[in-house]
Write a structure and sequence with these properties.
Rossmann fold, single chain, 3 domains, five-stranded mixed sheet, 427 residues, six-stranded mixed sheet, Tyrosyl-Transfer RNA Synthetase, RNA-binding
RNA sequence: GGUGGGGUUCCCGAGUGGUCAAAGGGAUCAGACUGUAAAUCUGACGGCUCAGCCUUCGGAGGUUCAAAUCCUCCCCCCACCA
């Protein structure tokens, strides 16, 4: 089965250029393809996961993926899909962010022996000279056409307008593609559906300057069944960096998937065979939660490794109760089968306190210090509304102190609302 | 450069001297119901030493017993014209 059919089958394809030629190209060549990543944060988040997974699929089929970090374009900011002017960030920030992104991508892609490349467009963009650029590249672009591009149109119509540097983004991205084509034989660019205009511009530029056929693929914008762009939680973005978003929280994020999205997400974010997913469609009620556990397990395994996934699974079980995974449910998954029972060993977020603090700290302070609440008022409110628990017992008064008999096995388990836990370990 | 319209709590957006910590909606959070889902209902949603107090309505001054609301200057945004 060709990569293209696989991507299509798993729901990755929104749009593509030259369907048949691209199919040929991918079956007869060891293709090099690229996706750009913005270095605006030190970590990638779930929003980029579709792109990352697509690159992994390409690599699994013997093609060579390039992750292009936009060190040069990051200095400008892409207006696509943005409703307002993006903050321009400094070179130092970009450099720092680049390192983080590299580390994360290395968890998904094999960079050994140039099986995948990580490049930075600052390499060539910062060397550009204005006049030659206008003469060699700018002449190929029609402003009339550019302003019709969806990415610009929205901004042209909005009150905020579009600045000239943002307007140039399309040319720079097209130039990137051309550079990658010339220097690395890369003639396929992929990206989110908001990148269509930029990708097509690159395809055109390559045809006009290099005289070669280039291709583009865009992925759909993944929204949850409730219509919200996926990847946002109470904590903001769901980061792929374990420091910013623990593997337990990452696992929980996936477990909390909307019923209607389970199959879609299994296809996009795991490598489990498509035929196995057919049975998941028929699951209902509590049984569907088992499929969610597998989705969470697989997604966590891909991003944080198998050990982290098992730990997250155990932590989840000890918080939310035992879970039985039968042998015939999604057999392709390496999730440990059988019944998972509550154990003491888990990897719930925790912090350490000394024993002498007992009896001195009001619970409200504890909830705040530990990060479960953002202010004392917030904690007070939580208690008042009955959402604060110690070891599973609801706290009745906000000025309650932590006492000796709250300590169990040298630890205290705090809970805010239904799903947020934090463990206090005493020493 | 000219003319007009704006900048309100996470976002949108009401509010034009006291009844304003500021309507309404969204987002978010808690409770109920559940399956760690969705939908629904209820409540909360600046901070604190919490039946009270303190700090907020672009910024700095001023008028007033009292200002998000009036005056002055400044900064920023938008539209149209040049």
């Amino acid at each position: 089965m060709s990569v293209l059919s696989i991507l299509k089958e798993r729901g990755f394809i929104e749009d593509l250029t030259h369907t048949e030629e691209l199919e040929d190209y991918l079956t007869n060549n060891r293709a090099t393809c690229y996706i750009g990543f913005d270095p605006t944060a030190a970590s990638l988040h779930v929003g980029s996961l579709v792109c990352i997974m697509a690159l992994v699929h390409m690599q699994r089929h013997g093609h060579r993926p390039i992750a292009l970090v936009g060190g040069g374009t990051g200095l400008i900011g892409d207006p696509s899909g943005k409703t307002e002017l993006r903050k321009i960030i400094t070179q130092e920030q970009i450099d720092g962010n680049k390192k983080g992104i590299k580390n994360q991508l290395a968890r998904f892609l094999d960079f050994s022996d140039d099986k995948a490349l990580l490049l930075d467009n600052a390499q060539w963009l910062t060397k550009l000279e204005y006049i030659p650029f206008l003469r060699d590249i700018g002449r190929h672009f029609s402003v009339n056409r550019m302003i019709k591009a969806e990415s610009y149109k929205a901004r042209m119509d909005s009150e905020d307008g579009l600045t000239f540097i943002e307007f140039n983004y399309m040319l720079l991205q097209a130039y990137d593609f051309m550079q990658l084509g010339k220097s690395y034989g890369c003639f396929l660019q992929m990206g989110g559906s908001d990148q269509w205009g930029n990708i097509v511009a690159g395809v055109d530029l390559i045809r006009r300057t290099v005289g070669k056929q280039a291709f583009g693929i865009t992925f759909p914008l993944i929204t949850t069944a409730s219509g919200i762009k996926m990847g946002k939680t109470h904590k903001g973005a769901v980061w792929l960096d374990a420091e910013k978003f623990s593997s337990y929280e990452y696992y929980q994020f996936w477990v909390n998937t909307d019923d209607a999205d389970v199959v879609k997400f299994l296809a996009l974010f795991t490598f489990l065979p498509m035929e196995e997913m057919k049975q998941v469609k028929h699951l209902e009620g509590a049984d569907l939660n088992k499929a969610k556990a597998i989705l969470a397990y697989e997604a966590t395994k891909i991003c944080h490794g198998e050990d982290a996934a098992i730990k997250a699974l155990q932590a989840s079980v000890s918080m939310f109760g035992s879970l039985e995974i039968s042998n015939d449910l999604l057999p392709g998954s390496s999730i440990p089968r059988g019944t998972h029972c509550v154990t003491s060993d888990n990897s719930v977020p925790s912090s350490s306190y000394t024993k002498k603090d007992i009896g001195k700290i009001p619970v409200v302070d504890l909830f705040m210090n530990v990060g479960l609440c953002k202010s004392k008022s917030d904690a007070r409110r939580l208690v008042k509304q009955g959402g604060a628990y110690i070891n599973g017992n609801r706290i009745a008064v906000f000025d309650q102190m932590i006492l000796e008999n709250d300590v169990k096995d040298n630890a205290i388990l705090l809970r805010a609302g239904k799903k947020k836990y934090h463990k206090i370990i005493l020493n």
